[in-house]
Amino acid sequence: MSASSISGFVSTAYAQSTHKQIETAQRFYVTIVKSKRLSPTPVTIDSLTLMICCMARSEYKFSTITKYLSHVQRWAIREGILVLSEQDKLNLNLALRAAKKLTDGPTRQAATLSKSEIESVVVALDVLSPVAADLFILGTVGLLRVGEALALKAGHINPAWFTIKGGNATGIIVFINKSKTDIGGQGSRRPIPCTSLPPTAYSAEDTVENKSYLCQSPLCAAHRALRRSRLADSPDDALFNISREAYSTGLRKAMSTCLGSTDINASTHSMRRSGASTCFSAGWSLQLLGEYGRWSSSECLDKIYLRNSHHRIDTFADNLYETWHP
């Protein structure tokens, strides 16, 4: 077996999105180093420190700097061109500390919406852009990353029956074909039941398609997505024919309108963050929530996504009252 074949085999350990991130960081590193008339190879303490310094002075977020550094080092190790002594590693950590001091400011998390605020944003988006409203409610309920939602095709939405509370409920199965945590590239299937019609005992003649159109709730993610998928000319057509920029702009406007303020971090990340907070408030365990939402770890979910969200305040207050009241 050739060296290139072995290298190709090893590289399949990374998800496609990770490969793209590594390539982007590599090109960025090479551009910076060459601009200073230095050689990008081998990768040394001087070239890495130069990249860190340039990024910090250009006001990149510290998290972005560390991510790019990690990707460049990963690429250099794989290519056998990383030259760092133990002293170099210490100096690299000092460079990172200097960058952190220069770039650290208050980190603004994406705004977390309550369930009622989510519903208000859907209504507001329906006026601005129905496709954006469909994307938002599916992404929030299905805990999708915006990239995952935009990668969905019409054929990735399929009607389904679910047995819920002793009855049958209509809904959909969503095939998530592109995810940054899907290292094996197998894709994931996630159920989303109708949240409008109550489960009931349907007759044998009933079909999912027939029952789907009985639900016209603007807040039912399953049937909004199913109806949109049926409007496509081909299963290979994009489910949401909207750009990331257009969706982001519409969402910011809708959130600002509903929350009555422009001084909020209205971000596409609010979609997944708000969905996670709502599910956890409803009693989902971290393990179940992490598995459904395809988080890399429950720690990431707990410490980042659920931090400072609505359920935390109510939970803290409830427990303190139970502890201290007479």
Question: Main traits of this protein?
Answer:
Tyr recombinase domain-containing protein, 15 helices, DNA polymerase, domain 1, Integrase_catalytic, 2 domains, 326 residues, globular, single chain, hpI Integrase, Chain A, DNA binding, mainly alpha
What does this protein look like?
With 326 residues, the protein is mostly helical. The chain contains 15 helices and three strands. A three-stranded antiparallel β-sheet has the order 1-2-3. Helix 3 packs antiparallel against helix 4 and helix 6 packs antiparallel against helix 7. It is globular, with a radius of gyration of 24 Å. The N and C termini lie far apart (75 Å). Keywords: DNA recombination. InterPro entries: DNA_brk_join_enz (IPR011010), Integrase-like_cat_sf (IPR013762), Integrase_catalytic (IPR002104), Phage_Integrase-like_Recomb (IPR052925). GO terms for molecular function: DNA binding. It comes from Perkinsus chesapeaki (Clam parasite).
